[in-house]
Amino acid sequence: MEHRRLGRSGLKVSSLCLGAMTFGESGNFMKGVTSTDDEARRVLDRALDAGVDFIDTANLYGEGRSETLLGEWLGPRRKGLVLATKCRFPTGPGPMDQGLSRRHILQACDDSLRRLRTEWIDLYQVHMQDGSTDIEETLRALDDLVHAGKVRYVGCSNYTGYRLTESLWVADRRNLSRFESMQLQWSLVERGAEREMVPPCRAFGLGILVWSPLGRGLLSGKYRRGQAPPKGTRLAEWKDTYGRYDVEQTWRAVEAAEKVARDVGSTPARVALAWLLAKPGVSSVIVGARDTRQLDDNLGATAVKLSAAQMDALDKASAPSWGYPYEFIGSREPW
To answer: What pTM was estimated for this model as a whole?
Structure first.
């Protein structure tokens, strides 16, 4: 398993990260699409045996149960792992049970440490920007966690380009711990991050962590143009999501990945992951698997090396309309 530097920090992470969103029965947006506890345990053990030593979770997943299960299962193995979690979304009914205020961040971190049964979190991430809280308050709370030894590095997720840049400016001006990574959605069927999120990450040296690299499963090889999602799949449950992606641009990208997969003797999922792993600035790609079969397919992506011509074909087939000013400038890609 290849290891990469997380942005400009000294932290090294495996190029594939195990996402634990499917760990623990959920009553929220993941209801009905999580793994059984036994299967989740097998997925975890298989990933660690394969050399994956980077695990990503969040206090939102399974209403905290994902963290709880990891805390129960990791035991002495935790010391050799890079463990990442997040805060931002509601953890209770009260007005202070969410957001990026100092109060919520400090409480959420302590709660995650307890559930994970660990003394420190390697990468503590804010799950989405919070326009109701001043950036300096958020950054000072995170900086205090770093100085207290509860957190080693901090990162953000689902930030706009302007909010990320403002955060980096405040951290630099106030001498606070800065974001070392951004976790963002990116795939052959969802390339919007390339417009304003990927460029500042590259410009300012943040490691890019990719979530939903298979386009919510559309690039897994299970879905076909003009056919309903197979029963038991995530998109069979998430009908609104499937409706948004059931468009010509999506199927061009899916079919391009399938063609390249045939050419290289691999699978569409591995090709889609290999495309991301070849992109500059990507520190790790997060793979979430409901069972060991899915995990094994994803792990095989590290052996797939795409040619320049294949990368270009995938880029062209999946390219969205970039809009102004990128099309005015005349660049097919925003960077």
So the answer is: 0.94
